[in-house]
Amino acid sequence: QVQLVESGGGLVQAGDSLRLSCATSGLTFYGTDMAWFRQAPGKEREFVAAISWDASSTYYTDSVKGRFTISRDNPKSTVYLQMNSLKPEDTAVYYCAAGRRINYAYTHSGRYNYWGQGTQVTISS
Question: How far is it, in rounded angstroms, from Cα 117 to Cα 83?
Protein backbone atom coordinates (compact mmCIF):
# COMPACT_ATOMS: atom_id res chain seq x y z
CA GLN A 1 0.00 0.00 0.00
CA VAL A 2 2.58 2.56 1.11
CA GLN A 3 5.15 3.17 -1.59
CA LEU A 4 8.09 5.49 -1.97
CA VAL A 5 9.61 5.56 -5.45
CA GLU A 6 12.88 7.36 -6.12
CA SER A 7 13.95 8.66 -9.50
CA GLY A 8 16.53 10.98 -11.01
CA GLY A 9 19.70 9.03 -10.34
CA GLY A 10 22.31 8.38 -12.98
CA LEU A 11 25.93 8.69 -14.03
CA VAL A 12 27.42 12.18 -14.10
CA GLN A 13 30.84 13.79 -13.81
CA ALA A 14 32.27 15.51 -10.77
CA GLY A 15 30.98 19.06 -10.50
CA ASP A 16 27.66 18.27 -12.19
CA SER A 17 24.20 18.36 -10.63
CA LEU A 18 21.35 15.92 -10.18
CA ARG A 19 17.87 16.28 -8.77
CA LEU A 20 16.40 13.23 -7.06
CA SER A 21 12.65 12.85 -6.62
CA CYS A 22 10.71 10.63 -4.25
CA ALA A 23 7.05 10.15 -5.12
CA THR A 24 4.94 8.75 -2.29
CA SER A 25 1.55 7.05 -2.16
CA GLY A 26 -0.60 5.42 0.49
CA LEU A 27 0.47 7.67 3.37
CA THR A 28 -0.56 11.00 4.83
CA PHE A 29 2.22 13.08 3.38
CA TYR A 30 1.34 16.20 5.34
CA GLY A 31 2.36 15.49 8.92
CA THR A 32 5.13 13.08 7.91
CA ASP A 33 8.83 13.86 8.11
CA MET A 34 10.93 12.96 5.06
CA ALA A 35 14.58 12.14 4.64
CA TRP A 36 17.26 10.90 2.29
CA PHE A 37 19.87 8.30 3.20
CA ARG A 38 22.60 6.76 1.08
CA GLN A 39 24.67 3.61 1.10
CA ALA A 40 27.96 3.04 -0.69
CA PRO A 41 29.38 -0.46 -1.31
CA GLY A 42 30.88 -1.91 1.85
CA LYS A 43 29.55 0.89 4.05
CA GLU A 44 26.53 1.24 6.27
CA ARG A 45 23.57 3.41 5.40
CA GLU A 46 24.34 7.07 6.04
CA PHE A 47 22.05 10.00 6.77
CA VAL A 48 22.08 12.69 4.08
CA ALA A 49 19.23 15.16 4.61
CA ALA A 50 15.84 15.50 6.28
CA ILE A 51 12.91 17.90 6.26
CA SER A 52 10.20 18.24 8.88
CA TRP A 53 6.52 17.68 8.16
CA ASP A 54 5.82 21.41 7.88
CA ALA A 55 9.15 22.24 6.16
CA SER A 56 10.08 24.50 9.07
CA SER A 57 13.32 22.59 9.70
CA THR A 58 15.95 20.94 7.53
CA TYR A 59 18.97 18.86 8.48
CA TYR A 60 22.08 17.86 6.56
CA THR A 61 25.12 15.74 7.14
CA ASP A 62 28.28 17.85 7.20
CA SER A 63 29.69 16.47 3.96
CA VAL A 64 26.77 17.80 1.87
CA LYS A 65 26.09 21.15 3.55
CA GLY A 66 26.12 23.96 1.02
CA ARG A 67 25.83 21.52 -1.90
CA PHE A 68 22.56 19.62 -1.35
CA THR A 69 19.09 21.01 -0.72
CA ILE A 70 16.07 19.02 0.44
CA SER A 71 12.57 20.30 -0.29
CA ARG A 72 9.02 19.01 -0.42
CA ASP A 73 5.86 19.60 -2.42
CA ASN A 74 2.90 18.58 -0.30
CA PRO A 75 0.24 18.78 -3.06
CA LYS A 76 2.35 16.34 -5.08
CA SER A 77 3.31 14.22 -2.05
CA THR A 78 6.88 14.40 -3.30
CA VAL A 79 10.23 15.17 -1.72
CA TYR A 80 13.29 16.30 -3.66
CA LEU A 81 17.03 16.34 -3.20
CA GLN A 82 18.88 18.88 -5.32
CA MET A 83 22.53 17.84 -5.49
CA ASN A 84 25.08 20.34 -6.80
CA SER A 85 28.86 20.22 -7.10
CA LEU A 86 28.80 16.45 -6.97
CA LYS A 87 31.92 14.58 -5.88
CA PRO A 88 33.02 10.98 -6.45
CA GLU A 89 32.47 10.31 -2.74
CA ASP A 90 28.76 11.03 -3.28
CA THR A 91 28.50 7.79 -5.26
CA ALA A 92 25.94 5.56 -3.55
CA VAL A 93 22.44 4.17 -3.68
CA TYR A 94 20.15 6.91 -2.40
CA TYR A 95 17.07 5.97 -0.40
CA CYS A 96 13.98 7.99 0.40
CA ALA A 97 12.48 7.56 3.87
CA ALA A 98 9.21 8.65 5.51
CA GLY A 99 7.93 8.66 9.07
CA ARG A 100 7.72 10.49 12.35
CA ARG A 101 8.88 8.34 15.24
CA ILE A 102 9.71 11.36 17.38
CA ASN A 103 11.72 9.41 19.95
CA TYR A 104 14.46 9.28 17.29
CA ALA A 105 16.42 12.18 15.87
CA TYR A 106 15.91 13.32 12.29
CA THR A 107 19.37 11.98 11.49
CA HIS A 108 18.60 8.46 12.77
CA SER A 109 17.16 5.79 10.50
CA GLY A 110 14.88 4.61 13.33
CA ARG A 111 12.72 7.72 12.92
CA TYR A 112 11.32 6.48 9.61
CA ASN A 113 8.67 3.81 8.99
CA TYR A 114 8.85 3.53 5.22
CA TRP A 115 11.65 3.27 2.70
CA GLY A 116 12.00 3.40 -1.05
CA GLN A 117 13.88 0.89 -3.17
CA GLY A 118 16.76 3.25 -3.88
CA THR A 119 18.23 4.95 -6.92
CA GLN A 120 21.84 4.69 -8.03
CA VAL A 121 23.95 7.84 -8.18
CA THR A 122 27.41 7.46 -9.71
CA ILE A 123 29.89 10.33 -9.95
CA SER A 124 32.93 9.92 -12.17
CA SER A 125 36.13 11.98 -12.12
Answer: 19
pLDDT one-digit tens code per residue, 25-64: 998 888 899 999 999 999 999 999 999 999 999 999 999 9
Long-range pairs, 106-109, Cβ under 8 A, ≥24: 106/33, 106/35, 106/50, 106/52, 106/57, 106/59, 107/47, 107/50, 107/59, 107/61, 108/47, 109/37, 109/45, 109/47
- Residue-wise over 97-116: b if at least 16 C-beta within 10 A, else e? bbbbeeeeebbebebbebbb
Q: Is the dihedral of CA 59, 61, 62, 63 positive or negative?
A: negative
